[in-house]
Amino acid sequence: MKHGKAVRYREFGDFDVVDVVPIERPTPASGQVIVKVSAAGLNHIERFVREGRLRDLVSTQLPSGQGVDFAGIIVSVGDGVRTFRKGQEVLGHLAGAGTHATWIAVAASAIIPKPPTVTPEVGGGLYLAGCTALNSIRSLKLGTDDTLVVGAAAGGVGHLQIQLAVQQGAKVLALGSTENHDFLRALRVIPVDYAEGVEGRIRDIVGDRPVTAFIDNHGGYELLASSLGVPQHRTIRSPDRRDIEIRYLTAPADDTEAMADFSSIVAMVAERRIAVVVSGFYPFDYVTQAYQDLARMHSRGKVVIGMDAVEFGPRQGWYLTEKARSRRQRAETDEPSDTTNRSLAAGTD
Ligand SMILES: NC(=O)c1ccc[n+]([C@@H]2O[C@H](COP(=O)([O-])OP(=O)(O)OC[C@H]3O[C@@H](n4cnc5c(N)ncnc54)[C@H](OP(=O)(O)O)[C@@H]3O)[C@@H](O)[C@H]2O)c1
């Protein structure tokens, strides 16, 4: 029997309820495959679920795992699975959470082949943020006459939304702290500091042109949206964003629409039409630090954990040399990168 580990929490609460427990490699039921997880993303909404803040909206059976996104390699195939084979690299989602683990048993309907141009750390953090970004931008039906303001634009979901909106031809004003302005400019949007006076800064930029759409990822910007004259039906408020995310978080394995959205965003990344930034890439042993990094609220792009980091080879160096990390993250991070590198070099199995 092979042994691995998985994140578990037995009661709702803060980080202190999170344990890493030993697990045995599962066997696949009919229609399932066993995936050895190589990378898995972290998302705020999963933290909110763990804290018990979404009990009315997301049912959770305790003890529960964490993580819905993953990239990995199929190590065993159950009866009736014809479209995937052992050894194949896949991306997917796990209804009910639990991808922060060495292995997962997942329905074949909830996985897709990993395109060769999508790295595990990018593909492994893409499902929830990518589908949420795609759904929110699609719902706004943007065109070349639109001016869109996006809050938390440098974050995991925001940095995907702004790229999708630019593709639709919209002019995009991206709210972010000054540390992220060069990063945002590189994504072909206009950065705007969200500190006091933000409305004036937006008005100075747009002039006579109306702001026609608004996404408040962070929360607390509804008044700004209405003050700018954005119609309600073109404002994605923070609760709307939450509901979109819950739609994908709770999608069952046979939800073909969710998988179609996931396939679309993966294809865009594979074709390099969308860039995904992974600014925090933590070995599994540092999972608590990864959660803490996300909870600091200033991640740029995605925070991802890697289960078998040795397989990533030289690529991991790019993330951990910290070129990808914002100044604020660097200042606040308590784990020096050389420690993280050493742990990665040791690997996990
Ligand atoms: N409504 C909900 O239930 C719900 C669900 C999921 C997520 N969210 C929230 O949506 C936001 C983005 O989600 P994500 O998954 O993309 O998270 P993320 O990757 O952690 O993004 C964090 C982003 O939030 C920005 N931010 C921090 N404080 C801010 C403030 N006071 N005003 C405006 N922006 C601020 C940061 O920008 P800078 O680094 O540039 O400061 C950072 O880019 C997070 O704040 C998250 O808590 C809400």
Structural account:
Helix 3 crosses helix 4, helix 3 crosses helix 8 and helix 3 (127-140) packs across helix 9 (256-270). The model is unreliable at 310-328 and 330-349 (pLDDT under 50). The protein has helices spanning 44-50, 120-123, 127-140, 158-167, 181-186, 198-206, 222-227, 238-249, 256-270, 287-295, 315-320, 327-332, 337-346, and strands at residues 3-9, 18-24, 32-41, 69-77, 89-93, 103-107, 111-113, 147-150, 171-175, 190-192, 213-215, 235-236, 278-283, 302-306. Helix content is 33%, strand content 21%. It is globular and about 65 Å long. It has 2 domains: 3-126 and 276-346, Alpha-Beta Complex (Quinone Oxidoreductase, Chain A, domain 1), CATH 3.90.180.10; 132-241, Rossmann fold (3-Layer(aba) Sandwich). The protein is α/β, with parallel strands linked by helices. The site of NADP nicotinamide-adenine-dinucleotide phosphate (NAP) has 27 residues, from helix 1 and helix 8.
- Give the total of domains: 2
Helix content: 25-40%
CATH fold description of the largest domain: Quinone Oxidoreductase, Chain A, domain 1
Q: Helical element count?
A: 13
CATH first level of the largest domain: Alpha Beta
Short characterization:
With 349 residues, the protein is of the alpha/beta class.
Q: Notable features of this structure?
A:
alpha/beta; Rossmann fold; 7-stranded mixed β-sheet; 5-stranded parallel β-sheet; 21% strand
